[in-house]
Amino acid sequence: MFRLFVVNLVEKRKNVYNGIGMNENDGREKKTMRSMYKKILYLFFIVVGLTFVVFNYIY
Q1: 32-41, pLDDT tens digit by residue?
Q2: Contacts made by residues 5-12, CB under 8 angstroms, sequence distance 24+
Q3: How far is 44 from 29, CA to CA, in rounded Å?
Q4: Which of the 8 DSSP states describes residue 51?
Q5: Fewest beta carbons within 10 Å, which of 7, 11, 29, 59?
Q6: Quick check: 10 and 25 in contact, CB under 8 A?
Q7: Do the beta carbons of residue 29 and residue 14 sit within 8 Å?
């Protein structure tokens, strides 16, 4: 569901920037997508690490 939201956001942005120039648009998109994926990855690792620690603490 979250991935769908991200894709939708990117499509909307593409439609907005279409008139400006494709190349700079592509660069900007890739950068935002990369930072987004980094954030998601970090969040995922933090959650997994926390659950691991909590489970070790409980059991």
Answers
A1: 667 778 888 8
A2: 6/33, 6/36
A3: 22
A4: H
A5: 59
A6: no
A7: yes
